[in-house]
Amino acid sequence: MRRVLDHIDAQGHEHLGVDELAAVAAFSPFHFQRQFSALLGVGVGEYQRQTRLRRAAMRLAHRPGETVTAIALDAGYGSNEAFARAFRSLLGQTPSAFRTSPDWQALDTLVDRLNRLRSEHMQEHFQSSDVEIVDFPETRLLTFEHRGAPALIGATVQQFVAFRRAHRLPPEVCDTFNLFPVDPITTPADDFHMLLGVATPRPIEADGFSTWTIPAMRAARIVQIGQSDNLAPGFDFLYGQWLPATGEETHDHPPFVRRVSFYPDVPLHEAVTELYLPLA
Fold first, then answer.
1. 209-214 β-sheet, strand order
2. Around Cβ 110, how many Cβ atoms within 10 Å?
3. How far is 180 from 173, CA to CA, in rounded Å?
4. How many Cα atoms sit within 13 Å of 213 on the Cβ side?
5. Residue ranges of the chain with per-residue pLDDT less than 50
6. Phi first, then psi: what are they for 267, rounded to 5°?
7. 20 to 30 Å CA-CA from 200: which of 5, 65, 137, 140?
8. Residue 103: how many CA atoms within 13 Å on its side-chain side?
């Protein structure tokens, strides 16, 4: 089933038939749909529809240069009208309205639901050999703070992406970081905050942005593939299993991640995130 979900994501806009997906799973076509529904709690057709609309929503929010028509076609809809009906039924807004003023809470609910479908039955498992202790170099960042519920971070990301685009700081040239001064799981939503950072070789002054330097340090690094919205599996392993087993001590610096590649630039299961636990 993990192969099936990865295959659905990799195909993007295509609606894949039962026979093809059953072959990917190495299941009988006669039983595949029932097995899929029993495991994930949703039909394979509905799962495909929701994943395509999730990707469309991300592109509407963060790819202003793409037309609604192009996004509709890529999501597998032959007309803007059909796309608008499907999008509104799932997210409560038309595509144009979402692009203008996104309902981030509705999108977060969708993302969380799809992530749970996958993670509850196909959990990521790490082992000690997945962890590497590295000498992380001093890195100067320009950071933008998000405060408030994690579910609303989409609006902050949208501002951050717009700033990067305006100042010509593309991800393929200037690395993307997130820093976590507080635990998103245990911190009340109103008190949650985190930093979105971009590595920049030159100083830039902008309202709402400030500098942060990650000092040169030892750090435990683990690479999480896919599930870029949910970093808990990797960090839980580092803090809950690897750290106690090694006797290492933490550095007085918040944990952070480097976004190597991210959705929707790559298929969801191909997103690569490096998780860093600073060490003394």
1. 132-136, 217-225, 272-279, 256-261, 176-179, 193-199, 139-147, 209-214
2. 17
3. 23
4. 8
5. none
6. -55, 150
7. 65
8. 15
